[in-house]
Design a protein that fits this description.
Elements lengths: L4 H11 L14 E5 L6 H17 L3 E5 L6 H9 L6 E6 L1 H8 L11 E10 L1 E5 L8 H10 L4 E5 L5 H13 L3 E5 L3 H9 L5 E5 H9 L4 E5 L26 E8 L4 H15 L2 H8 L4 E2 L4 H22 L5
Parallel strand pairs: 1-2, 1-3, 6-7, 6-8
Antiparallel strand pairs: 3-10, 4-10, 4-11, 5-8, 5-9
Helix pairs in contact: 1-2, 1-10, 4-11, 6-11
């Protein structure tokens, strides 16, 4: 998911207004590893947080993109980094997916990392081609059940967040549908519009313009609340699949041995950044909800998602190693 350069610049401008708070962290340059490529949602958020952190402290914050399957390469760097708060990682719910999916990770996802704090929540949106017929989640489920084995859903790759979102939808709705992995979001969107696949849970950013142009029909968003970016689109839970909720979260992690006092200082810096009201409003209309948490709250979210994704992986019989 990408945010335009102009929008990002405006967001930085808003983030740097107001009174600067005195801080005890950071006092030297910070490196934030990002598990996705430049221009990705994780990259944009890392630069947003890093830019504001640098503005507040006067210390340089460097964003280091290390894209890899599930963030494993970046994870190994963090595992071996000094636990002093100056090497961090911006990760997404893909962190929990990897923990559930891979049986031979080179690290322990719960012991070798400290969940410092959540930064944002971004919904997936369930989309279909208008010509497919269903106008609601209930109608899509009913049609899929009338055609067992003939419906397929897309993802941005096996083991991706979109894959897990689709598998959870399939599992909870008791559908016989085939997973079709793509290299990325654009290819899956094109095939959804062409009805080569029948549905998919897309990251909201790339899908919004196609929904507003009428080229795709949005049936529901994956989070527990509607998004201001598509205010007329119900949640999937309220639209026919009770209990369905998938949050594409983003947050900051530190090496597992990082002292609690240091973690709390980093968390306090993040909380100040993501709670700038004007910044929250600007990002919200793009589908991004800036969201802070305590380290404990974020840790519980990560552990809960690992447990949930483990159930989905087992139910779907997904194997990658």
């Amino acid at each position: 998911m990408r945010i335009s350069t102009l929008a990002l610049a405006a967001a930085f401008a808003l983030a740097t207004t107001g009174t600067t708070h005195a801080q005890t962290y950071p006092t030297k340059p910070v490196r934030i590893l990002v598990t996705f490529s430049a221009g990705s949602q994780a990259d944009v958020l890392a630069r947003l947080v890093g830019g504001k952190m640098s503005e507040n402290s006067g210390e340089q914050v460097v964003v280091d993109n290390r894209p890899s399957a599930g963030g494993i390469v970046a994870g190994q760097i963090i595992m071996n980094a000094s636990p002093d708060g100056y090497t961090l990682i911006m990760h997404s719910n893909a962190f929990a997916v990897s923990a559930a999916l891979y049986t031979k990770l080179p690290y322990d996802s719960l012991k070798d990392f400290v969940a410092v704090g959540q930064v944002a929540s971004v919904p997936y949106v369930l989309v279909v081609a208008p010509a497919l017929g269903p106008k609601s989640v209930r109608e899509l489920i009913a049609l899929a059940k009338q055609n067992p084995g003939k419906f397929s859903f897309g993802s941005a790759g096996t083991g991706s967040g979109t894959h897990m979102a689709g598998e959870q939808f399939k599992f909870m709705a008791s559908l016989d549908a085939v997973h079709i992995p793509y290299k990325g979001t654009p290819e899956a969107l094109v095939d959804t519009m062409a009805m080569r696949i029948q549905f998919w849970l897309s990251p909201i950013g790339p899908a919004m313009s196609l929904v507003k142009e009428g080229r795709l029909l949005a049936l529901g968003v994956s989070t527990s609340q509607r998004t201001p970016a598509l205010p007329d689109v119900p949640t999937i839970a309220e639209a026919g699949l009770a209990g369905y909720e998938v949050d594409a979260w983003f947050g900051i992690f530190a090496p597992g041995r990082t002292p609690r006092a240091v973690v709390n200082q980093i968390n306090a810096a993040i909380v100040r950044i993501v709670n700038v009201p004007e910044l929250k409003d600007r990002m919200r209309v793009q589908g991004v909800v800036l969201k802070s948490s305590t380290p404990e709250e974020f840790s519980k979210l990560v552990a809960s998602d690992i447990a949930n994704y483990s159930k989905i992986v087992k139910a779907a019989g997904i194997k990658v190693d």
